[in-house]
Amino acid sequence: MTSIGNFSLPSRFLRKNINVKSYKYKTQLYTRTMNTIKPETETELSIITTDYVYPTKLKIFYNTNSTYRNCLRTLFKMNSNNFPKFDVDLDDETRDENEYDMDSAAIAMNTVLGDISKNSLFLYVLDKAAARMFSTDREIGLSILFSYDYLDVFHNCLVFFYTNENEFTDTTDCYVELLKRLS
Question: Which of 38, 95, 110, 131 is most buried by its number of CB atoms within 10 A?
Fold first, then answer.
């Protein structure tokens, strides 16, 4: 992923001799490419809508890799039309692992990060999660919190935060549970 402002773009958008320019207009991120060899060939690469509202009514339950990935697809509102296409037959597990919409994931994660980045409790868990990968990058921490081991309890924290922001404290049950898992 390559970050442009607060947005991340999949690496496939970046190629040799291509400059990516982006600008935000209302709630859409317009991304344009310009061939650096032939600047006159600037074309619009994509329009990525950034209208994302965290699904607070979604119940998260998983006990297998497959059900976890389905929860993540639903949570990030992934579009199956954006899943990679394969010319070869893949086993079910491999196909399931690759059914991932990077654009939707980036939009969802950037929205969540923006929403929680002013809350000291979330900053603490983002730092703690990032440290599990020997990092201080809060985006890495967010990725860890959306991983199999933490998604269920992190989702509960986000739901509580989005629906009762003023009541979200360091004694909130789901927050205490998240800290325990991160320890």
Answer: 110
Sign of the dihedral defined by the CA atoms of residues 113, 26, 23, 49, in that order:
positive
DSSP 25-59: ETTEEEEEEEESSSGGG-EEEEEEE------TTPP
In 3-state terms, what secondary structure has residue 133?
A: coil
Tokens 């009514």 correspond to 57
* CA 90 – CA 100 distance, rounded (Å): 15
Q: The tokens of 144 are what?
A: 């860890």
CA pair distance 99, 2, nearest whole angstrom = 20
| Spatial distance between the Cα atoms of 116 and 118, rounded to a whole number of angstroms | 6
Q: What pLDDT sits at residue 137?
A: 96
CA distance 54 to 112: 7
Q: What residues pair up with 35 in beta bridges, in sequence order? A: 18
Cα 178 to its chain centre, rounded Å, is: 19
Q: How far apart are CA 99 and CA 83, in angstroms?
A: 5
Q: What distance in Å separates the CA atoms of residue 62 and residue 24, rounded to the nearest whole number? A: 36
Q: Two tokens at 176?
A: 């205490």
